[in-house]
Structure prediction request, 304 residues.
Amino acid sequence: MRVSPPSFPEQAATLGALLRRPYRQLSGRLYAEMAAQGFPEIRPAHSAVFRHIAPEGSRLTELAELADLTKQSMAYLLGYLEEHDYVSIGPDPADARAKRVRLTKRGNAFIKALLAASQRIEAEAGKIMGRAKMQQLREALVALDQAIAELP
Amino acid sequence: MRVSPPSFPEQAATLGALLRRPYRQLSGRLYAEMAAQGFPEIRPAHSAVFRHIAPEGSRLTELAELADLTKQSMAYLLGYLEEHDYVSIGPDPADARAKRVRLTKRGNAFIKALLAASQRIEAEAGKIMGRAKMQQLREALVALDQAIAELP
Prediction:
């Protein structure tokens, strides 16, 4: 008798798959909306920069560490974002050998637009699934994050 | 007066950030556990293959489409997995010009181990946050996924 292979994770509806599906849908909608709002150059990969950059600017090496990327990969992302005027890269005033990355006016406008679109999509999805359920979901996601961190 | 930049998505606790945090923790734990169980070669990037490959095998081009990767990127991932004996790549019986990718015994063993570890971590996290809350979370994640799909 031929043994059939185990069903694979996507079909098994693991917790990981359940978390990933709405995240990817949300992300797809957000970036499409950002493109429509005048930020067509930004890809999900660039979130590694926008997610971690500090308001006062960050060092390239710091950003690479926070995003768990090599310095080379981070430099590549930053080069692209500098070229399209989302960040500026200059010497670090505190350390002449280091580079400091800052958001430009356009970079700040992008983040502001991304947050606004994210809140709007969440509010609209909340109307469909019920606002109380959305609030419970938010709380449960925080609880899950804490629970996983507490595992041995 | 200096205008301070908007706080960026990670601090704003957008729905996206709330979904991503437990997902990344879960994923980190899973792959560390898989390495400890004898599958050290597998990286999160390889999930693009394991998530989509059909029990009867899949074409390289199908896998690339499903994973939203170029044929070249998918061929690169598959080459690595073939080298480490997780998949076999041969001619497609239905089309001599196409290639068919199948899970090897080791590839099937990996998926089985991954699913078992995923269910165990979920059960343990459920003990910490409460099983009823975990069940509600699962249902709310499905509802969210549907709600986002229904948005105009």
Notes: Residues 119 and 125 of chain B are 10 Å apart (CA to CA).
